[in-house]
Amino acid sequence: MTDRLIRVSETELTAKQASAASVALVLTTTVGLVGASVSSGTAAVIWAIGTVAAIVGLAYRMRRAPSGTVAVTLLITGIVVLSAGLPAVAVISESRGSSSTPAVDAEHAASPVPDPNSEMRAALDKADELLPGGADSVLRIDIDETSTQVYVLDLAAGQSVYANYSRSSDRWYDPSRTPSRDRGESTFRRADLAHLDLTRAAAAVTAAADRIGIDRSFRHASDGIEVQRRSSDRKLVAAFSMSGEEVEVDHTGALPDNLGLVSVDGFLPAAEKLLRSNGIDPRQPVLGGLSYAVYKPTADAVPHTDPGTVKIDIRGGGRSGSLEETVGTFPVVRLEPDTGSASSAFALTAVTAGGIDTARADLVQRRKVATVDTHAISLEIGQDASSSALRQRNPPPVLHLGLGPSSDAYYRLDGTFVRAD
User: Fold this and answer.
1) Radius of gyration of the chain (CA)
2) pTM
3) Rounded to 5 degrees, what are φ and ψ at 225?
4) 3-class DSSP assignment, residue 106
5) Distance between terminal CA atoms of the chain?
């Protein structure tokens, strides 16, 4: 009788232990799965090893469990893992993914640092330390992956004061001074940047770079953000350099409206807008020359053209000089009053998309241009410098058209072939 009671008591105790072990096994498996799945690196390894060790220990305790307990436990474990564990992993993983930017995008985005606004503020604060009121006499702020630099003009001394913050050492180094030819018109003030959000601008610039076709897959030594007044026109810009190519925003963070310059379809509309914005009627015969190339590195058969850039030479209408605009950057205007004119000047309206395409189609056939180069256009329009043309009085302008790196010929503006040198 006593032996029976002892055996019953041991059986009941084993059943209780098995029940507790079953619950522990279910919870350990589920929690371990979630922990290992949403962790990374060493933490994930620790979660996995700990979970396996706990499962082995619990399984060892259940070796003397009543018949059927193990099967029921495994069934319950499977149900809980499928109904709770896996959904939890999915939700946590999605939440983590949506709250962070993929590493490759962050690495090659327009901003070389996570918070360029903080870097700009730190540079302005440092400017005030370098000179009394230094933040109102800033020449340049440079932000790149390794450092933030600020240049301040000490006008009284005729010097530029420079300070450099190193990210690796987390400190500003002692400032240095050098003679400077810059004067007050080259500087900007803290207040001038009040509406410049570099973080937001960087996102817009990254999107614009992709539309332009800038290859962001590698870093270039010049990559970073540079805030300064341009030497050509003193316009205050933040220039974002990616893979050696630049995109600008103005002091409010606005991009230039000229992304159409990447292709020949946007060439003439951009040229017309550039003329009109400077008070020049595109119907006026005041153009001494006009050049353009699509945004493609191999579109350089015609010399003196730059990718995604329109250049207009003005010779008449009371002014002379040049207008230049490159995709992603603001126009550069160099015009001066001038009463002279050029007899060979022409109007922008004399140039048509149809004439350019007619010439392009002829050049493709004439030079057996490779398919990859058939739209890699570079062109220059101006006075015909051939000996036969120079013997004429007021010869018509000629279109020098290039496709790809080496195919070119000369055409009338309607696309009629003239010659191939």
Assistant:
1) 35
2) 0.73
3) -120, 135
4) helix
5) 120
How long is the chain? Answer: 421
Comparing C-alpha atoms, which of 259, 154, 271, 143 is closest to residue 208? 259
The predicted-structure confidence for 97-129, as pLDDT tens digits, reads as follows: 333 333 334 446 788 899 999 999 999 999 999
| Residue 30, H or E segment | helix 2-38
**Paired residues of 343 in beta bridges:** none
Beta-strand runs (E) in 180-331: 224-229, 236-242, 245-250, 287-293, 309-316, 319-326
Alpha carbon of residue 114 to chain centroid: 14
Contact 389, 284 (CB under 8 A): no
- Count Cβ atoms within 10 A of the Cβ of residue 351 and give its class: 0-12 exposed, 13-18 middle, 19 or more buried: buried
Helix/strand number for the chain, H first, E second: 10, 16
What single-letter DSSP state applies at residue 253? S
Domain boundaries, the chain: 116-250, 264-419
CA atoms of 256 and 331, how far apart (whole Å): 8
